[in-house]
């Protein structure tokens, strides 16, 4: 025989409490936890931590040491070798200095590895922008696009290489804004 009041009661598949999953329960009343502490079981009443309380990550992966003076010098040389080569070689060998630093120091310092890989990737990207600009400048119609690309490639390698060198000397990692990821 069935109970006539059983039709009005909700039955959950798990049995017992109709809201076995807390997400199925209706929201609490606005003043339901006025007398309780600030930490409650209601996830909607908790205040998220502010951004100043969240720790900022260090460079590289995992738990690593801070950059010492030697690492900062090598990272600065990786960043500065591209603008120096841009002036000396008319912009065509900017990738060579960061590549040499990456090959020499990639296994000994993650800070130098990240700096030299970023400088190399950015140098290759700016060289490709300059090459495309030169190709476009041979046509009269596309020279309007090609000449600014040549200027962007040259000035980008010089200015942002100096900015990266200054950041590396201060022990801060620097990420170039436009780069094709070749080395990491």
Number of strands: 0
Number of separate helices: 4
Radius of gyration: 30 Å
Apparent shape:
flat
Order of helices and strands: HHHH
Secondary-structure-derived class: mainly alpha
Produce the secondary structure layout.
Blueprint: H1 69-88, H2 96-105, H3 110-137, H4 143-169
Helix pairs in contact: 1-2, 1-3, 1-4, 2-3, 3-4
Provide a brief overview of the structure.
By secondary structure, the chain is mainly α. About 45% of the residues lie in helices and about 0% in strands.
List keywords for this structure.
single chain; 184 residues; mainly alpha; 4 helices; 0% strand; flat
Description of the structure:
This protein has 184 residues and is mostly helical. The protein contains 4 helices and no strands. The protein has helices at 69-88, 96-105, 110-137, 143-169. The longest helix is centred in the last third of the chain and has 28 residues, at 110-137. Residues 59-64 have low confidence and may be disordered.
